[in-house]
Amino acid sequence: MSREPVMDPSLEPGLDPVLQRTESREGGLDHLAVQGIDITELLAADSRRARQQALLRFGAPVIGVVAFFTVWQLAVTIFDIPRYQLPAPWDVVKHIAGDPGFYIRNGRVTAWEAFLGFSVALVLALIGGTLMAHSPFIERASLPLAVLIQVTPIIAYAPAIVIWFGFGLKSILVITSLVCFVPFLVNSVAGLRSVDPNLLELARSVDARKRVIFWRLRLPSSLPFLFSAARIAVGLALIGAVLGEFFGSKEGLGYAIKTAQARPIQLIDQLWGSIFVLGLMGGVATLLIGALERWVLHWHSSQRL
């Protein structure tokens, strides 16, 4: 049985409907113009607002960093601070540019160790968070251990980890994973439990499997929490890698800093050069995580501001 098309009551019969809708839109713009609202001014204001947001997002951090290093450079010059106490940032940059291979080689080692520890901590925390989110008993049994790991300074038992796992990547990986684990664990539990109760009840009412609920509801709702933890864990991963190199390695930026501390006057540029490169690595990693977050969570309200 065929159905007759439903006509729009706002359109007049016998006339072209496309033309009528076009005239209606133009009439709406004319109506705004009649009320004294300048359409071009509204569009220009929207464009200015977009430029201001872009400047706030990208320009403000650059201005802040440049201002900080400018004040540092001027303070060293004006107050004549000895170079072995605090070198000028421009001198450190020139030193890095004079021997880039040294920092590329050691920076690659530290970055790889930090990335591995970061990844292992994320995977283990997601597994542990899933178990804790589904079982209050497991959560109450495991939470004191997680708190103990968090509050005990890693530098206190890092030498013991080196004794257990030996020099090299294994001990560094364990140290880096431990310092990154707790932020991921806490945020994964909170994220997995943040799913909309109405959606959860709807899924259970149609007998959805737990695996489907996890992948379709719980994991997507936990992503904002995991990205927040990732921003914190980036710095912790570099701290863990450098600390592990202090105790259990003969390469990497941590070992370069340790060597420079033994001869601070002769290797002061190496000390600060390693610090600069570590800061650059952390900044780049944070930017990459932010870009990935905007791409993955384009649907989330936090990305619409």
Structure commentary:
With 305 residues, the protein is mainly α. The protein has two domains: 20-81; 90-303, MetI-like fold, CATH 1.10.3720.10. It is built from eleven helices and no strands. It has helices spanning 17-34, 39-78, 89-98, 100-134, 136-151, 154-165, 169-192, 197-205, 210-248, 253-262, 268-296. Helix 4 (100-134) packs across helix 7, helix 5 packs across helix 7 and helix 6 crosses helix 9. It is flat, with a radius of gyration of 28 Å. The two termini are 49 Å apart. 26% of the residues are buried. Residues 1-8 and 15-29 have low confidence and may be disordered.
In short:
With 305 residues, the protein is mainly α. It has helices at residues 17-34, 39-78, 89-98, 100-134, 136-151, 154-165, 169-192, 197-205, 210-248, 253-262, 268-296.
Keywords:
79% helix; 11 helices; mainly alpha; MetI-like fold; 305 residues; 0% strand
Biggest β-sheet, characterized? none
CATH topology of the largest domain: MetI-like fold
Question: From the 3D coordinates, which CATH architecture of the largest domain would you assign?
Answer: Orthogonal Bundle
Which class of secondary structure composition applies to the elements? Answer: mainly alpha
Number of strands: 0
Assign the CATH superfamily of the largest domain.
MetI-like
Tally of alpha and pi helices:
11
Shape: flat
Distance between the termini: 49 Å
Radius of gyration: 28 Å
The oligomerization state is single chain
Low-confidence stretches: 1-8, 15-29
H-E order: HHHHHHHHHHH
Query: Approximately what portion of the residues adopt beta-strand conformation?
Result: under 5%
Number of domains: 2
Mean of all residue-level pLDDT scores:
84
Helix content class: over 70%
CATH domain class name of the largest domain = Mainly Alpha
